[in-house]
Here is the input.
Amino acid sequence: MASYRWKGRAALVARVSTVQITAYDAATTYKLTRNLKVVSCIAAGSVNATATALAAAWEASDEPEFTEITASAATDTVTLTNDTEGVDWGTITPSVSGGTGTIGSLTSVTANSGPSDVGIAANYDGNAVPAGSDTLKLDNSEVPLLYSLDQSGAGTLTLLQIDQSFTADVGLPEVNESGTAEYLEDRQRYYKIRASSVIVGRGPGSGSGRILLDQDSVQTAVVIEGTGSPSDADLEACLWKGTHASNAMTVKGSSSVGIAVYGGEVATLLTLTVMDDATVRVGAGVTLGTVTVYGGTVDIYCAVATAIVMYGGTVRVHGTGAVALAQVYGGTLVYSTTGTLGGACLVGENGLIDFSQDPRAKTVTNAIDVYGPNCVNDPDKVVATLVIDWNGTTPLESLGTNIRLTRGATA
Here is the structure.
């Protein structure tokens, strides 16, 4: 086991790849595709002429995915050279349609190299890319991690630690800027690295406003102690994914965290603990077990399979997911989902379950144990049959203490 620190010092080298026209046919269309966009040519007369025509079609395109790469031709081969050293490109796929013509696969001539490529050994102080059982620390640096981000095949790190003194990006934004043009990013966006333990935001510093982490299928204990202010509007500073059934996450401080928040993303958390003034958003594709909240704000868009346990803060449950159990000793649970609230729910004298912020009908399976006079809010009667067991003081002093109130569907 070795310990590494990110340095970001690799030499700048532009990526170069080639593709060969391997057989010509006048009825064949020859294509190069990137990010679902295509440049193509047909009926150029020979393999050499086709290579020239395909390179010319690339150069004539005004799509930013193509304009950031220069295409040239020599004999039957098209050469693609990145215009910016140290900046990798997304997947480029050669193909043909019609006729009997053929085209070869994209062949690497010169690999990308630069200070933001995580696959380059020179970017680490040990002159090796961290692998299984190693530890990796990102600290005191403004050099981002942007390319060759899928390192899931390198084994499982013992620890990945990203300190608050690391202020650069880890991962890529959803929209890429190429000169004055923009396009949806087609490269790997998350830093996909397996690690048994992940610590983000430790120590002094302003932190990073964009950290995208994908722990893949390995069991991970994640502790987020702080982040920078989010770099992207309507997104959190740290975006996280991981699919192991026993993943656990604790979020502290003033952290800003999103868990599988993009459409189609999935993640699994057996336990999620939130405290201080952290903000956390849990996406619709998350399998979520127990949520324990001491402070901060949590927005949940999925079902909660085990329980929400609150001692403070605010939890808002959205959408249609069910909540197996809610125990609100303190803080506010805003129940804005149509999913059933089950289990032996209770609300302490410093807690509140609020059904008033979503007009859709809701079902609460069992009586709610309440320990204060104003612990359940449902003025619009969205819970058709609501049963409350008041323990101790009730809002109806004339009835004494420890009573059950049932509101029927026709109330």
